[in-house]
Design a protein that fits this description.
Length: about 300
């Protein structure tokens, strides 16, 4: 009693491609300005955008793989590739933060030289605008398609917005005060900001790989459908997990002993359809048990009622 559900892939690849294009452009512009001015914070941002570019390529590849249908070797589909993508992006963010700190500390130890702040401020302002627009697009598509890979890429770009704002403020202070030492200090503060985002992203990506259950709100929806149906006299062994954008639910439902096979099958099909309507992208497997016979079995072997 299971139905394969095709992933909701509308717009996922296009959104990932948009991220690749924007990150490629920003990386090249930041690198050019950083080399021209000698600003460590701008060069750090170039490294961060290069990091974002790698992450966006990972996201693009992962959504393509995750959208492949289940096959003999992968009967539950390829959705967990998106979680692996999220972990990879979190690792890249951590790496970018470490590199920024290293470059900034090196600059502090060897002395920060005077440089022109105008070009750096201009490219940072452009980066903020572009990444705000692209990240909003990615968040919207990620929400609609329930894509961990796009969610991770959007989070990655949102950290880039924060870092660009930080660098922009730092460059503004350098321009205003003439203290070039504020440039590497701003870079260090930026690195600290993005570490928390990396950890949040990492934790979100790990949960599906460990087959963590669905959120309580979604589990309550399933229970509500089953417990609210007159044909269901009890349920146990409700298990849930997620793989990419696909949800997997299985449960033992107890029904009247006098129902024939056709009636029980029809009742379960209707229950599964209701769950899939409320939770799109869900595979549901309901195992039917006769209520009185199951309760007697539980009394004889477990000393009580049905066990969750």
């Amino acid at each position: 009693m299971t139905t394969r559900v095709a992933p909701h892939n509308t717009g996922k690849v296009g959104a990932a491609q948009l991220s690749v294009v924007s990150n490629t452009t920003l990386t090249l512009l930041k690198l050019l300005v950083g080399l021209m001015t000698g600003s460590v914070s701008v060069l750090s941002e170039a490294a961060h955008s290069a990091n974002d570019l790698v992450a966006s390529v990972i996201a693009l590849v992962s959504v393509r793989i995750a959208d492949r249908p289940a096959d003999a070797g992968h009967p539950y589909g390829h959705g967990k590739v998106e979680s692996l993508s999220g972990m990879a992006e979190a690792a890249l963010i951590f790496g970018a933060a470490a590199w920024i700190v290293y470059e900034a500390v090196t600059k502090l130890l060897h002395g920060a030289e005077q440089f022109s702040t105008g070009p750096g401020m201009a490219i940072m302002a452009l980066s903020v605008v572009v990444n705000v627009l692209v990240s909003r697009r990615l968040f919207a598509v990620a929400k609609r398609t329930d894509s961990m890979a796009l969610q991770a890429d959007a989070e990655h770009l949102r950290t880039d917005v924060l870092t660009s704002v930080g660098v922009l403020v730092g460059l503004g202070l350098v321009r205003w005060t003439g203290w070039s030492v504020l440039d590497p200090i701003a870079a260090i503060l930026v690195a600290l900001l993005i570490v928390s985002a990396a950890w949040r992203l990492f934790a979100g990506a790990v949960a599906p790989l460990l087959d963590s259950g669905l959120p309580t709100a979604e589990t309550d929806i399933v229970r509500g459908v089953l417990e609210g149906d007159a044909t269901v006299r009890g349920l146990h062994k409700l298990r849930t997990r997620k793989s990419g954008s696909a949800r997997h639910i299985d449960c033992h439902v107890m029904m009247d002993d006098n129902l024939n096979l056709v009636e029980a099958h029809q009742a379960v099909e209707e229950l599964e359809d209701r769950i899939r309507t409320l939770l799109p992208g869900t595979e549901v497997v309901l195992h039917v048990e006769p209520f009185e016979a199951e309760m007697e079995h539980q009394r004889q072997h477990h000393g009580g009622g049905a066990q969750d």
